[in-house]
Design a protein that fits this description.
Helix 1 (about 10-20) runs antiparallel to helix 2 (about 30-40). With about 170 residues, this protein is of the alpha+beta class. The chain has helices spanning about 10-20, 30-40, 85-100, 115-125, and strands at about 5, 45-50, 55-65, 65-75, 105-110, 130-135, 145-150.
Length: about 170
């Protein structure tokens, strides 16, 4: 079935999807914060839509002209593993590159916190081109947060000086 990715906000769909994923989003306060972000114009909001309903949501935030962050990606549990998350990421990558962004980051629970659902999350981000950068305790929550980054096409743009270590 076809996935359409659109730039639109839906706090109710964000809540519905997050509440259906208790292994990842079991904290009601965190869910409320993500739902508030879904309505906040400072965040970009992208929805994955199938003919019957919204099946995925992603929130982004632009910190600098060159760097953006995926603040949230969540896929309805009935549609996990069907390409919805990848479609959301690729839409965000294309839009960010088009807007001159050079680097995309995402935070998730770090590997020093052993939890199978987040091991799946880290594997997903690696599969869509993100590389682990560093892990910090107490960054986004009381435990370890892993920062992953993905260089974008703009990373080697014409306004950058060539690396003297690289021979042409």
């Amino acid at each position: 079935m076809t996935i359409e990715v659109i730039e639109r906000r839906s706090a109710p769909d964000t809540r519905r999807i997050l509440e259906a994923l208790p292994d990842w989003f079991g904290d009601p306060v965190a869910i409320d914060n993500y739902v508030a972000a879904a309505a906040d114009p400072d965040f970009g909001s992208v929805l994955a839509v199938r003919p019957e309903s919204v099946v995925g949501v992603a929130l982004t935030r632009r910190h600098f002209a060159q760097a953006a962050e995926i603040h949230l990606i969540a896929v309805d549990p009935e549609h996990r593993g069907s390409g919805v998350g990848r479609a959301l990421v690729e839409h965000i990558v294309e839009a960010s590159e088009h807007d001159g962004c050079s680097l995309l980051s995402v935070h998730t629970v770090g590997p020093s916190f052993e939890h199978e659902p987040y091991a799946q999350t880290r594997a997903f981000y690696r599969a869509v081109g993100f590389l682990p950068l560093e892990e910090h305790d107490g960054l986004d929550w009381s435990g370890p947060s892993l920062i992953l980054v993905r260089p974008l096409a703009g990373a080697a743009g014409p306004d950058r000086a060539p690396d003297p270590r690289v021979r042409s």
